Fold this sequence. Notes:
This protein is α/β, with parallel strands linked by helices. The chain has 15 helices and twelve strands. Residues 32, 90-92, 117, 119-120, 168, 172, 197, 199-200, 220, 232 line the site of pyridoxal-5'-phosphate.
Amino acid sequence: MTNDDLGRLPFGHPARRLFALDPEAAFLNNGSFGACPTRVLEAQDAIRREMERQPVAFFADILPVRLRAAAQRLAGFLGAAGDDIVFVENATAGMNAVLRSLRFARGDEILTTDHVYGAVRQVLRHLEATAGVVVVEPTLPWPVRDEAAVVEAVARGLTPRTRLLVIDHIASRSALILPVAKLVELAKAQGVPVLVDGAHAPGQVELDVPALGADWVIGNCHKWLFAPKGAAFLWARADRQAELHPPVISHGYGGGFVAEFDWVGTRDASAWLAVPDALDFLEALGPARVRERNHALVTAMAETLASAWRTEVGAARPLFGAMATVRMPAGLPPTWEAGRALRKRLWDTHRVEVPIMPVGDALWARLSAQIFNVPDDYARLARAVAAG
Ligand SMILES: Cc1ncc(COP(=O)(O)O)c(C=O)c1O
């Protein structure tokens, strides 16, 4: 399919053919790991074959140049400068790189929220154990109708001892878009640096990374940018780069931000090198067309399910991107185990894939909409839940 054809492609069933997804599935979970178009997988495969044809020339001569070109291309999409961006395998690696590079004193406070991603919370726990920091996790209002309430909740957690704000751009469990620019402003007013976990943001919301005003921003390319698995980036403001080191120290140590992160030992860089192919795909479709259609579909479907279940959606429409949460009908305890068990039952019995997670005192279904979804996918979820 040419790029012109992609630009005119109707979403839904025609788009589904561009992916390797199980044809039986109602796949309502692009959020967890994304879905990579077959054309991007083929590009990645070609990169791997090129690597295996002459591995030494590939790693010594080709990779350093191609990696920078891919970073430059991604940076262009994100409104950033190429040398302010390095690739990492995933958002977790990027968050580790920043959090474990910074130096803290005993009693320093790191402010985050109760919506923080579980793996990132574990990194913060590690810093509590090793550096003696105190992690402050205010509870966000939930369900939430306006972003001012979110800003107020975070503001209440700021103290004279706060040394860092760690904020999700789009929270994993709730799908809530946090008002990042306002939170950055709040933190900066007290001289507190900000680390943004934007695992879900690139491709799902319009994004100008430097304009967020944060010190460091992490983002995944494999969730909403159509890249192969294992493609993520770390952006650091120019004056915050020297203090950063990758989770794995290698030859580049002491050589500066790009040198340290671009080489951390032999590894398969094909997912990163295929990021330009993924961006070609997205740009041919039209990033705004994709965002707007997915947002409209997922918020409408969330409202339909909420009225079928006589429950509610988690947030007002503008606080959702291409994901939205709906409270599940009562009956199950609000625990991770109950949510995981229900998710597995829905898949095993009905071939409906949707994550079910606790937020506050209930279980919530986190719906995603990607270009291959159709309203009937969500109707299948309603039928599956009704059938038990
Ligand atoms: C907010 C947030 N941070 C970090 C991650 C981790 O992403 P990865 O598995 O790519 O490291 C996720 C994954 O869903 C997430 O939602």
